[in-house]
Amino acid sequence: LTLTFTLDRALRFALRALLVLQATALYFVDILALRAGHEKDEDTADTVGCCTLKCEHVELAEPSTIKFDFLGKDSIRYENSVQVEAAVFQNMKKFLNGKKPGDQLFDQMDAQDLNERLKELMDGLSVKVFRTFNASITLDRLLDELELGPDATVEEKKAAYDRCNKEVAILCNHQRATPKTHDVAMDKLREKIDDLKKELAVMKKDLKLAKKGEPTSSGKRVSPETLMNRISKKQEAIAKQEVQAQNREDLKTVALGTSKINYMDPRVTVAWCKANEVPIEKVFNKSLINKFLWAMDQDSTFRF
């Protein structure tokens, strides 16, 4: 009887310890939108997720800060310092105690164990659901916080959307190296903008001539009204190119597609586009529109 009682206590203690491990891992998945992490072959790059973190990937700083530094999916470095709740910090101290830098942090569980536990709690629940929720709720909040003026152009609205998408991509660590073609593409854009500005300068001089009743630089007589219309269109073209150039520069180290395809609820985007009169084609390419046909009828009032 004593032996049975002792074994029962030991099993309950072990179960409690496992649940503490799982709860702590899930805390990081939820708060930091970390991937679960799965076992890899020996010849695969040493990339990790939450459940495959090693002790060397975390550093504790009293009273409650944890620094993460590891290679995530596609060998993208994840580096972040975050303040956590006291209980989580204490758990981490216990997990690290007595272990070597190369030891597994969550050594009694893996991503499959965590997913199986989540399925026991709710059918269909998985670690990815937490990342999907965080990506979607973050996009919804950021889009709602945007302050778009009444005169904002479609290009300006699209750039604003991309900035929100960028924040989601950073949250999910969807970063990338700057494309090799980036500098060349930026140079071409700047040259195009410079050419447009030179053309605008000529138009403004021609306008002064036209107002005096004199021929323009081309030798033709053009009405001031016609020239003012051309100037307005040229200014719009310059503004459009400048927005595109700035957007390209801002997004050079993030991959927007992954979060669009796999994490952000498309209804958030569809509703925002409808509410702000932005063609969905500006945000989703044809393949994504086909993928998310089920969301295309969502009305503009939807909130995640």
SSE class? mainly alpha
Strand order of the largest sheet: 1-2-3
What is the number of E strands? 3
Termini Cα gap: 55 Å
User: Any idea what the radius of gyration is?
Assistant: 27 Å
**Helical amount among residues, as a percent range?**
55-70%
Q: What is the mean predicted local confidence, pLDDT?
A: 88
Order of helical and strand elements: HEEEHHHHHHHHH
How would you summarize this macromolecular structure in one to three sentences?
The protein has 304 residues and is mainly alpha-helical. 56% of the residues lie in helices and 6% in strands. A three-stranded antiparallel β-sheet has the order 1-2-3, covered by helices on one side.
Describe the fold and architecture.
The protein has 304 residues and is mainly α. It is 56% helix and 6% strand. It contains ten helices and three strands; from the N terminus they run αβββααααααααα. It has a three-stranded antiparallel β-sheet with strand order 1-2-3, covered by helices on one side. A hairpin with a 3-residue loop joins β1 (58-61) and β2 (65-71). The protein starts with a helix and ends in a 13-residue tail after the last helix.
